Fold this sequence. Notes:
Elements: H1 2-18, H2 24-51, E1 63-64, E2 78-83, E3 92-98, E4 102-109, E5 114-123, E6 133-134, E7 139-142, E8 149-151, E9 159-165, E10 172-183, E11 186-192, E12 198-201, E13 203-206, E14 217-223, E15 228-230, E16 244-249, E17 252-260, E18 271-281, E19 284-291, E20 295-305, E21 326-334, E22 336-341, E23 348-358
Antiparallel strand pairs: 1-9, 2-3, 2-11, 3-4, 4-9, 5-8, 5-10, 6-7, 7-12, 10-11, 10-13, 14-17, 14-23, 15-16, 16-23, 17-18, 18-19, 19-22, 20-21, 20-23
Helix pairs in contact: 1-2
Amino acid sequence: MCIGLTINIISQYTKNIKNINLNITTMKKSNLFLAFSLLFAFAFMQSCQKTEQVVPTEPQNERSGDLKTQIDYCGDPIMVNLVDFDETMFPGTVTVGNDENMLYVTYEVTAPYSILNLAVYAGPADQIPSGNTINGDGTGSFEAWTFPYSFYPYFEVNSHTFEIDLSTLPECFILVTYAKVDGPDGIFYAWGKSNTKYPGYYFDYCVQECNPPLGNCETMYAYGDSYAQCFIGLPELTSKKWGWSNGPLSEGTYEFEIWAGAGQCDLSKGIHVGTLDVDYSGGTVTVTYSMFDDYSMTETHLYVGNDILPKKKNNKYTAAPGQYPYKHGYPLGETTDTYELDGFSGDIYVIAHGVVCDEQ
Length: 360
């Protein structure tokens, strides 16, 4: 627009000069005026070039804004490592979860790394854009610039959340989460541990159901108020599963609340379904689950120990209930459950998990 306007100005001025019978003095003045006009036009064009410069922006098919917080996930989100294909650099993580309407894909990298650009494919493996291949073993060959969702920040950033409409996705699908990352050793490509014509990774995800508590059956955990430490905030874990480790507890008697469906450890999202009684005396720990009317348990998992969390065989901390040392199952449902455990000393921690169902 600016260039066209400048040309019109010069053209019109030249036309006027030709149509006027000028004497030598007038010509000199006119030529001087023309020189100044051309100089003005050049400066004007330079100004136009600066103001019309285009800066990349986010595509309109992905609503998002940097790092989205306070996501009300349905079920438990999954977290995968963000790694280069050789798995020598681990700049951060990708967390994937959904609510009733949207899929959330959150990148987080830690200093000294930063994000230069991102791209995501979410959908059936057989519908990935042409030029990309899936090997079926978690690897593939990908051209990230063909992915439908991308993010180009104005400046280097450390986090970003994509929001993708669930109505565009099947129940289960793959995710290829690409990142161009800047670090101490230079720029490299990273993937949610999942080949592009940079080698890379993909992983699977299934949409998690969103039932109001309880809706039928739901995960539950004991909440020890001032003793309760949410899994999400524990430095020993990278998992974003909700739940609490309660302690440290010295010998004595305690009564804790049991909450179901309290995602992100937010009690306002859950429902109070029962109580947990803990009696610690003389090295013996007795733990009793008691459900309120209209609720029953189908399984319980219990951890009691001196560490804040149980450990897996590789000696790493975990919050996964399947790794708790004590468990009971009640296929027909039960309203109370008691564990009596011996051989403890010093302060202990208690994690009480279960599955509770309403009886309607």
